[in-house]
Inverse folding.
């Protein structure tokens, strides 16, 4: 068994989680405030990756990132960036795919905070940004952990999208879930078994962590 | 704590290894075993590494036409190789590198010597073939069944593998009672498989001429290495290895 695919999966999950922390938290904050029809539609779109079959997402990403499409050609010409059959492409796909796992728990936690918390801070003359970082975020710590850990785990488990746009390249797009599929295809059942056990162990630890973070909260871990 | 985690993550992913690029060969699933063997021999001789990516011919052809970075395409037929060439992704016309042989096989103890009566008698159990639209061995199996007028009989029990590899898995794990696959599987069985097989008469299906194309991508990096492996596929030594795996060469 080679460790490269496992390492690649962990790397992909880590980068995806970082990017989603950066963009997901502001989006969640925006969604958690006064709702409007536009926000409801936006939230629905951001939640779609949760329910869409990965093949749908993969198919559309393949079409739009392919060098035959205007978007793909533009990226290639101006940035020399190809999002099909490349690690960068997997990152972009995973960010879209795991988006709801970051946004939903954070949004729901922010929406449940009593408004008086932020109001007290504003009364004392703190800016909105300071209030957000020093008052709101520390109060939803366990949800932040849950969102981070679930995003990481969900990206580790990604398969369909990667299969559609990855192309099974060694050390670039052949992540652990693909390596398992490939090993089965090659009649290497022992190898498939080893990869599967490693993934099983990693994800089991992750899920345990989620439950530990939430042990004091009365909410279920997916909220 | 979250901050520490972020720092840890940044450190961990910036320290990743960079891979030297090997000759990337996209291989139809049926030929993956023989091509892996060829890659091994080639590496021994020249020190040049070859990376084998396998899938159904149709899927690989689609990937190539969407810009997949493969240097060589080894299709399971001529049609997909020609499609890729005509779409402008090949450097030269496809060449036949091997002629495949279709077998019927089982690991559930089914009597494959009399596979025709197994099917016509409606024996229970699934019959696995590769997707005829994507995999030439699936198409050959379909042709053979139709020629023998057994297709109607088989239809309700047919299961379709995404590529010949999936058919192999279905058969080897006993999920399907019998399956139609490539003869090369016989020479690369996993240890401990109880396996029976029988060649399908070649008159029952159109010859499975497998086409190789040197792709345009080969020019972008290490062209000499890519070309060297492509030429090696047609050498006397490679032909002997193809024979060992049940292929004919021209």
């Amino acid at each position: 068994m080679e460790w490269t695919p496992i390492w690649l999966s962990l790397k992909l999950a880590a980068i995806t989680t970082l990017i989603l922390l950066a963009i997901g938290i502001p989006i969640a904050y925006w969604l958690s405030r006064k709702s409007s029809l536009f926000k409801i539609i936006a939230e629905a779109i951001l939640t779609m990756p949760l329910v869409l079959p990965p093949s749908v997402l993969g198919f559309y990403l393949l079409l739009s990132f392919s060098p035959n499409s205007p978007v793909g050609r533009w990226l290639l010409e101006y940035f020399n960036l190809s999002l099909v059959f490349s690690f960068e492409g997997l990152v972009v796909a995973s960010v879209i795919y795991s988006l709801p796992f970051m946004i939903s728990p954070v949004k729901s936690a922010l929406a449940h905070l009593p408004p008086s918390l932020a109001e007290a801070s504003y009364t004392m003359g703190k800016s909105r940004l300071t209030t957000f970082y020093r008052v709101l975020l520390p109060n939803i710590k366990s949800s932040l952990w849950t969102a981070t850990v679930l995003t990481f785990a969900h990206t580790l488990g990604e398969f369909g999208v990667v299969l559609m746009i990855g192309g099974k390249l060694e050390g670039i797009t052949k992540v652990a879930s693909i390596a398992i599929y490939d090993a089965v295809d090659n009649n290497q059942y022992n190898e498939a078994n080893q990869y599967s056990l490693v993934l099983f162990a990693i994800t089991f630890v992750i899920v345990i962590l989620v439950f530990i973070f939430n042990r004091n909260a009365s909410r279920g871990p997916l909220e | 704590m979250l901050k520490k985690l972020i720092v840890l993550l940044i450190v961990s992913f910036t320290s990743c290894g960079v891979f030297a690029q090997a000759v990337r060969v996209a291989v139809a699933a049926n030929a993956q075993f023989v091509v892996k063997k060829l890659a091994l021999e080639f590496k021994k001789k020249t020190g040049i590494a070859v990376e084998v990516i396998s899938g159904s011919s149709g899927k690989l052809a689609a990937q190539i036409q969407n810009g997949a970075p493969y240097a060589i395409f080894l299709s399971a037929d001529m049609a997909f190789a020609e499609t890729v060439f005509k779409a402008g992704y090949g450097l030269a016309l496809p060449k036949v590198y091997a002629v495949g042989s279709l077998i019927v096989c089982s690991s559930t103890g089914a009597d494959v010597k009399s596979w025709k009566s197994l099917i016509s008698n409606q024996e229970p159990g699934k019959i696995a073939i590769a997707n005829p639209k994507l995999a030439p061995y699936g198409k050959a199996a379909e042709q053979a069944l139709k020629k023998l007028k057994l297709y109607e009989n088989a239809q309700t029990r047919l299961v379709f593998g995404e590529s010949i590899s999936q058919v192999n898995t279905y058969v080897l794990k006993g999920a399907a009672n019998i399956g139609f696959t490539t003869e090369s599987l016989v020479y690369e069985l996993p240890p401990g498989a109880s396996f029976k097989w029988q060649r399908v008469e070649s008159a029952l299906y159109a010859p499975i001429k497998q086409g190789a194309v040197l792709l345009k991508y080969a020019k972008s990096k290490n062209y000499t290495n890519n070309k060297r492996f492509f030429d090696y596929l047609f050498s006397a030594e490679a032909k002997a290895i193809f024979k060992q795996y049940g292929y004919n060469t021209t």
